[in-house]
Amino acid sequence: MERIPILRMGEFLLVTIQIDMHDQMALKLQDDLSNAIQKHATRGVLIDISSLEMVDSFIGRMVADISGMGRLLGSETILVGMQPAVAITLVELGLSLPGVATALNVERGMALLRRKIDADGTDDAER
Amino acid sequence: MTPNGKGDTPLRSEHDIVLARQLVRRLTQELQFSLVDQTKMVTAASELARNAYVYGRGGTMHWEIVAGESRRGLKLLFADEGPGIPNLDLAMTDGWTSGKGLGMGLTGAKRLVNEFDIDTSINGGTRVTIVRWK
Fold this sequence. Notes:
The complex is a heterodimer.
Chain A: E1 6-9, E2 12-16, H1 23-40, E3 44-48, H2 57-72, E4 76-80, H3 84-93, E5 101-103, H4 106-120
Parallel strand pairs in A: 2-3, 3-4, 4-5
Antiparallel strand pairs in A: 1-2
Chain B: E1 6-11, H1 14-30, H2 35-54, E2 59-67, E3 72-80, H3 88-91, H4 105-111, E4 115-121, E5 125-133
Antiparallel strand pairs in B: 1-2, 2-3, 3-5, 4-5
Helix pairs in contact in B: 1-2, 2-4
């Protein structure tokens, strides 16, 4: 089965979703990502959905679940690059994804992750 | 060129759901829907296709280009022969779900289209019709 690649970028993980996922693929990504967070002791995850032309309630739920699950594993998740038409549709659908941090693009998402982690003041080096 | 006609596509697997939304994207593009309107119709179709597959044990999406007095639109019918929806009022409540969804499928899809109609009976399947006008 096709898999969404998870890239390691320093202390962060980057997931770029570039294909129209079927549901099992989205669930697989959720699994793979939780394993990767634990394996690499990742502090932050960026999910880039700039190529996604549609986010329905299933994908929205997956993103919310990844964010909640990441938090339990000590990792922050930022959803980046949502297209305006997708944002308008999601809100009308009734899914404004409370609790999921977002940023306009990968650069801003990365900056936000660093700020969040610095604000925590719990970098491993400081412990 | 403006499209005409109608057709069917099966909803028997998760891959079929992906194909159904790609088909709806193409049809709404051919009808020259705005990007936001395309996205709303594709998202509504994805929700209803998944309902037919997951809860209705598979079904069919029928599509038709429809003409109003001065406008054209896309009509989609999602039909399954599943168990039906026992309590439709409850199913049409935000946040209610019988399965693993968010409970946004039916009500969310309704908000994304101009016309919405649902017909369901116990053991008689469910038919949901939606229309979005350009």
